[in-house]
Specification:
43% of the residues lie in helices and 12% in strands. It is an alpha/beta fold. A hairpin with a 4-residue loop joins strand 6 and strand 7. Helix 3 runs parallel beside helix 4. The model has no long low-confidence stretch (mean pLDDT 91).
């Protein structure tokens, strides 16, 4: 038996005295001095987590949060910096929002980080759900942000997402590519190629065969460098409810990352195993899968309530709730209780936390656990104390099958 691999995912939330403090000190996201302090504190946390034996640390991609929620616009920069600060820990992103990204640029950036980390790197992709920034950075006339509701907008978002992620795979693994997508093409113009390229002769004679045609036009693109890991770094994909996301992961051997309840995850872990088998990949139940939880380990039940209220209520009420209609509404007391009932927030006293985690793992084992904390709304020392307790007291209780035989 083995223990799950733990990933620490921090949502860089500028601290305030609750919702009213956030309003009174607007716009927190523009406070450069606070960001400077927090971005270096983030590195201190990475080093501490590394010393605790945490397997990985992740970053997000979100933009324009002037109110101070989730200030994390460029995960790759952070990953590359952390790589030089830690000894053993992996780094990655959960993740690049593919519909707003140039797939060639993502393939280049992530390949470089893979080399900088000497292979201790994973790449995460997400579909995107915040139109405030996805439409602007993605430059689409129709919304590319969505929830998994089966609507035309949802289908379009998935189509863009899958097209671009598969293009990243091609760029990583093929000597040269022609990317003939519905939403993205390379070279451009696609029909003629890049005509009259001045250095066509040496590119034709020393570059990848077929990049340059007989008229000196660029007809294929060689994306360099290639990743350090072969054929490419592990890929994680955020999933909130859609079976289509799980099927896409299974097709490519990606790691589905479940932002969902235990019941919701339970319905999909077996689908992943079955779908992967259809593509020639053999996984055990829970293997190559990632459970996401928002934990708190408190001294008393009252302390657990306090932590939820002080560290999580503001963002749960004012940010998560408006995006996800399935989230309950109500008074602050009712919202705190709904967090406790959700199965996504997990915790209580140490004994209560151990019991809750063991019950969860009895139903849905997972090779990876991603723990999300609303740092820096939750102070660093408090968060690190909880993380240390999890690693020392809770993780040893969560045995899973030893996935020693790699999936084919």
């Amino acid at each position: 038996m083995a223990l799950p691999k733990v990933i620490l995912q921090l949502y860089p939330m500028f601290p305030s005295d609750g919702e009213e403090g956030r309003k009174a000190n607007r716009p927190l996201g523009n406070d450069s001095d606070m960001y400077h302090r927090l971005v270096h504190e983030w590195t201190d946390i990475a080093k501490a987590a590394d010393d605790m034996g945490v397997w990985g640390m992740g970053a997000i991609e979100h933009h324009f949060h002037s109110e101070g929620y989730e200030v994390g616009p460029n995960p790759g920069v952070l990953n590359a910096y952390w790589a030089g600060q830690v000894k053993n820990m992996h780094v990655g992103a959960l993740g690049y929002v593919a519909a707003t990204q140039d797939p060639i640029r993502v393939a280049e950036e992530t390949a470089i980080i893979d080399h900088l980390t000497k292979g201790k790197f994973w790449v995460g992709f997400a579909r995107g759900y915040q139109s405030r920034w996805t439409n602007i950075i993605g430059q689409f006339s129709d919304s590319v942000a969505t929830v998994s509701d089966g609507s035309d907008n949802d289908k379009r978002n998935r189509e863009i997402f899958e097209e671009r992620v598969e293009m990243v795979l091609k760029c990583w693994t093929e000597e040269s590519v022609r990317l003939d997508g519905k939403f993205y093409k390379a070279p451009y113009p696609f029909d003629t190629g890049v005509e009259d390229y001045p250095a066509w002769k040496i590119a034709s004679e020393a570059g990848v065969e077929g990049e340059i045609d007989e008229n000196g036009a660029v007809q294929r693109v060689s994306v360099v460098p290639k990743p350090f890991q072969k054929p490419h770094p592990p890929v994680m994909v955020a999933a909130s409810k859609s079976p289509d996301s799980i099927k896409f992961c299974a097709k490519h051997g990606f790691i589905p990352t479940y932002f969902m309840t235990t019941q919701g995850m339970s319905e999909l872990v077996d689908l992943y195993v079955d779908e992967a088998a259809m593509h020639g990949r053999t996984f055990q139940r829970g293997q190559n899968q990632n459970m996401v939880r928002w934990p708190h380990i408190a001294k008393t039940p009252e302390d657990y309530n306090r932590k939820l209220r002080e560290y999580d209520l503001d963002i749960y009420k004012n940010f998560y709730g408006p995006f996800f209609p399935q989230f309950p509404q109500g008074s602050d007391d009712q919202l705190v209780q709904s967090m406790k009932d959700s199965g996504i927030f997990i915790g209580g006293t140490l004994d209560e936390s151990i019991a809750a985690w063991k019950e969860t793992y009895a139903e849905v084992p997972a090779e990876y656990i991603t723990l999300i904390f609303h740092w820096a709304q939750q102070p660093k020392d408090d968060m690190l104390e909880e993380l240390s307790t999890f690693m020392e007291k809770i993780l040893p209780e969560l045995e899973i099958p030893d996935f020693a035989i790699a999936a084919e």
